[in-house]
Amino acid sequence: RKEVKDYLKKKFKHVASISTFTYFKDKGVVRDAARVFMVPLGEVNKALKSVDTFEDYLESPNTKEFRMKYPEVTWLAERLRGKIRSVGVHAAGVVVAKDDIRKYAPIESREDAQDKVSGRIPVVAYEMDTVADIGLIKLDALGLKTLSVISDTIKSIKDRSGKDINLSQIPLDDKNVFGMLSEGYTKGVFQAEATPYTNLLMKMGVSTFEDLAASNALVRPGAMNTVGASYINRKHGNEAIKYVHPIMQPFTSNTYGVIIYQEQVMQACVHLGGMTWSEADKVLLRNEGNKDTRTEYLIEAKRLGLKIRLPHVNESDINFSLKGDAIIFGLAEVKFISDSIANKIMDQRPYKNYKDFIDKASKKGSGINS
Which of 202, 269, 321, 351 could form an S-S bond across to 357 if both were Cys, CB 3.0 to 4.6 Å? Predict the structure, then answer.
């Protein structure tokens, strides 16, 4: 991500990050107010256990005793509510302009959490929606672990088989890939590995690249809960394809008359609703989130019949690696062993036995700690 941001700075010159604000809200504001008055945490947790919103807190019989005992907490919480609690830097968002951004928006400097070395960075003192409203161009520089996974995989294939893989030459109509995804083999596939996504692929079945593009839009809760069933039924010929209005046929025929893409929403706003493109552009739906669980991958690897071997002082690399027909744990995957200590262990290989390892590790200056 940092490389992309540095590139944008060189290319456009007038570039800044975007602020993010968190607000005092819901039951969190009660917790914050209680901290000011040093109310014991146990009492706070007990009172808030059964409520979610601030309204719940004010009305629930479960919080009545707490409210009677600490009226000052409610008094302060009501005044804090809705105000900014903390300010940060948006991890991905940057704005670019043709002139000095200070002409268009207030700028402040902040420490960059992703780069402690280069000093402070310029940040627009607005959050992303306001930035868009005043007309600045906003870019999202996403940091995707999957890109590193792909890069490592290509390197591994080259090391093991000598084959050079060129991603730009990979066919986008490989039936085996579509079959694999349709059967639910999605672990390690960006976005598709989430359970709702896997279920969707198995339900709708994918046989073209366009199907994959559609699945990416359909998996979002708004789309899935409204038009998802219709799309799947129409795709499988179980429901008639119909259009809300003839005007919409040209841009919804490839999705069986169903609106699933943001661009289609914009086209409907312009062609059917008479909006300008810039008005339609502001009609934006977001949904993101992804959790990487290593344990799930290891379980999936075992399910696929791959051997998993434990870390070994003589055989492991720093991270997970392939040895023969097995995946072997890396030394740095062991808790408390850093990359540098793993390197020191690897430098003194091979070890004849456990005693030999302890002897070498215990020598002064070995760099290997207890």
Answer: 351
Round to whole Å and give the CA distance between 249 and 267.
Answer: 11
**193: closest CA among 309, 119, 293, 275?**
293
Rounded Cα distance, 34 and 108, in Å: 32
Look up residue 34 and give its amino acid: A
Q: Of 235, 152, 169, whose CA–CA distance to 200 is shortest? A: 235
Chain-centre distance for alpha carbon 186: 17
Collapse the DSSP code of 187 into the 3-class scheme (helix H, G, I; strand E, B; otherwise coil) and give the result.
Answer: coil
Look at residues 321, 317, 364, 305 and name the one whose alpha carbon lies nearest to residue 345.
317
Measured CA to CA, the distance from residue 339 to residue 350 in angstroms comes to 18
Q: Report how far apart the first and last C-alpha atoms of the chain are (Å, whole number).
A: 36
| Residue with the two structure tokens 């046989």 | 207
Task: Render 45-75 in DSSP notation, one character per residue.
Answer: HHHHTT--SHHHHHH-GGGHHHHHH-HHHHH
> What pLDDT does 44 receive?
96
Q: pLDDT tens digit string along 153-173?
A: 999 999 999 999 999 999 999
